[in-house]
Design a protein that fits this description.
The chain is mainly α. It has a domain of 88 residues: Chromosomal Replication Initiator Protein Dnaa, Chain: A (Orthogonal Bundle), CATH 1.10.1750. It has a two-stranded antiparallel ribbon. Helix 3 packs antiparallel against helix 5, helix 5 crosses helix 7 and helix 6 packs across helix 7. It is rod-shaped. It starts with a helix and ends in a 9-residue tail after the last helix.
């Protein structure tokens, strides 16, 4: 047999073994790759957060916030109906009562140990959160609760106030700011 015929025989035999299915070896079992500690930690945190969220929702369903009771108390104090506070009217008496309601809701109700947020209060009153923010600050200043007002002012405004007071104490003219 010639070398070419031998080589052809080997190729035919190899092709038969490959495509016949008789001698096909099972694929090797792959070892599972180790999971990084970062992935395990992230998954554990996600599970813990999900569990905490579900517990908070269950607790809130059992103990709903009493925001409507505060609105009713404020309305009664001012001789109004709660629907007046929740409505769109802008009479001075109603606005003053509404501002008090914003203030009381923010300072008296907590959700997960945090005060009720301005957007959440705004949603209850069908207002914009900036209107609630303004009413809250206005009532806090009226009551004389400067501590609450100072801590609620955002950081950049606080820095601007600090810069002004520093310049005034130094005896120079305060910087002009856009307001």
């Amino acid at each position: 047999m010639s070398a070419l015929a031998e080589q052809h025989e080997r190729w035919v035999g190899a092709r038969e073994r490959l495509y016949s299915g008789k001698h096909v070896a099972a694929p090797k079992a792959q070892r599972p790759r180790p999971v990084s500690p970062f992935v395990v930690d992230t998954l554990a945190r996600r599970e813990a957060a999900k569990k905490a969220r579900e517990e908070a929702i269950a607790w809130l369903r059992k103990h709903p916030p009493h925001w409507s009771a505060i609105v009713k108390q404020v309305a009664k104090k001012h001789g109004l109906k709660s629907s007046d506070l929740l409505g769109p009217a802008r009479f001075k008496k109603i606005v003053a009562a509404r501002n008090e309601a914003y203030y009381r809701l923010r300072t008296e109700i907590t959700v997960n140990r945090a005060p009720l947020s301005f957007p959440m209060i705004a949603k209850r009153f069908k207002k914009d959160h900036s209107s609630v923010l303004h009413g809250f600050y206005k009532h806090a200043a009226l009551v004389g609760d400067t501590n609450e007002v100072i801590h609620s002012i955002n950081r950049s405004h606080r820095e601007r106030l600090t810069l002004r007071s520093f310049e005034v104490a130094r005896g120079s003219e305060p910087l002009q700011t856009l307001e």
